[in-house]
């Protein structure tokens, strides 16, 4: 189990994770109108939140892990003091233009319909949810027995859970789109084509109706 500081340093030291983070942040910042507010859902140690705040976006952070939120308070101390970042103890405690969830946060939530029903109360009409989710089609996972054992579940139901401490789930974009309706419409999935087989993460953009 990582402490908040260990997780923070690991994420910053990993070129692979940094590449994913850079792409995710660029996409989020290009989508956000100037000065638009954002909820960083599952904010970890505040790496993304700090970037949003630095670009002029009032940022709320929701992080249920005490280790992660404790280090977030240190990493984002200056932004919190000047109220550029505000911590919330419930994801429903704010009203924002966008919700971002990086590094498979949504994969820990089996009730996707309930999740998007809650987020519909947070995201303003015309706003969006941007989530990076584990790619269920990633062929790099095909070497694992659990991936092969659940391939039919993925094709038939569009999702499956893995027996582990975290009970992490895999979802197809179509399953997420159906769970998000009628509040959100799936607008974009990145990458497409061969990237669907070679990239660990998918970026899903869902627009609030």
UniProtKB/TrEMBL annotation:
GO MF annotations, alphabetized: methyltransferase activity
GO BP of this protein: methylation
Domain of life the protein comes from: Bacteria
SUPFAM superfamilies: S-adenosyl-L-methionine-dependent methyltransferases
Keyword Thylakoid: no
Record-linked Pfam families: Methyltransf_23
InterPro entries: SAM-dependent_MTases_sf
Keyword field contains Methyltransferase: yes
Gene3D superfamilies: Vaccinia Virus protein VP39
Key words, A-Z: Methyltransferase, Transferase
Name this polypeptide is given: SAM-dependent methyltransferase
Source organism per UniProt: Dyella japonica
